[in-house]
Write a structure and sequence with these properties.
40% of the residues lie in helices and 14% in strands. By secondary structure, the protein is an alpha/beta fold. It has two domains: 12-78, no CATH class; 107-368, no CATH class. The longest helix has 29 residues, at 7-35.
Amino acid sequence: MKRPPTNLTLKHWTNVAIIAIFMAIIWLPTLGTFFHLDAAPAFNEKRQMARFPQRKPGLAGLKNYFAGLESYFNDHFGYRTRLIHWHNNWKYLLFRDKIGSDVIVGRDDWLFYTADGMVDHYRGVRQFTTQDLLDWETLLEQRRDWLARRGIQYIFIVAPDKQTIYSETLPAWMTKVRPNTKLDQFFAWMRAHSTVDVLDLRPALRDARRIAPTYYKTDTHWNLFGGFIACQEIIKNLSKQQPALEPLSLDSFEQENRPASGGDLVDLLGLDINEITEDNNILLTPKAILPALEMSATLTKNPKAAGIAVVFHDSFGTAMKPFLGYAFGKVIYLGQHELDPASIQREQPSIVISEIVEREFNSDKPNEKF
């Protein structure tokens, strides 16, 4: 008959197991380095990772070689990416709105980009001076007049920041100091002092929320439905001078909210975008009643329409491209805020549209550009 194990035997095997686990943990980074066992997606660190050093002669060369080896190992040791993702996920779960200098977590897990003084701009701490407003007026009137001499209509739009449209999802501590923002100041000033065609998209984007979300929860941008609403408002505004232009009907598209991987703010937090779900991914698929557009990154062509438009835009212009082309025979998209006279003169458009996101508008110096 076998004797039951003694306490000494149990202790022995417990110690063996602990040592084995400890040695495995110690060796995992080395094994991961040589055999590339870490399957976690690369973390976007926005910097150049250290390269394997080259040996140079002399004592100084040897010293630099070993220092380079250490830097290389620090950037490439096994399971480093997985550990970074775990670290960032724990911060996200435990600390929420205190996890990063450029991103905060609002209510219902809405993410907000806070760079470029977002908090102070939203709260009304930062305001335009009279000179700032005069500079914007002067710039836009110079553009309008230069284009008008060439028979071209001009419209200027500001794509609102997400917190402007979904302020109720911000953290409770982000309260207003003043009721008016720089955007409020700008539209009030332009209404009182200028006839430049400036379009306030905020009311339409807020109203459209009754139909579907207009912005992503985990991304800085409006979604396709938000881009559609912006295009609707642009065409409505342009039709005052060009009655032939008609806004599209939402019924011309099949609408679907298809959950997707997290957006750019998830990536900025260092989280795995595949582990965070984006719930506001609105897809609008054109029905057969609409003409087929020829589309590329910088151009749309519509064989059933006439006229040429040139759009100067930032990343918010991407969600407008699937829709604006239905109103024009040709639309050229240029990814910049400044007008490009050479492109305008080459394309001979009937309309020029400028789009700039609110956070850039808040910080830009209009007297430094055309």
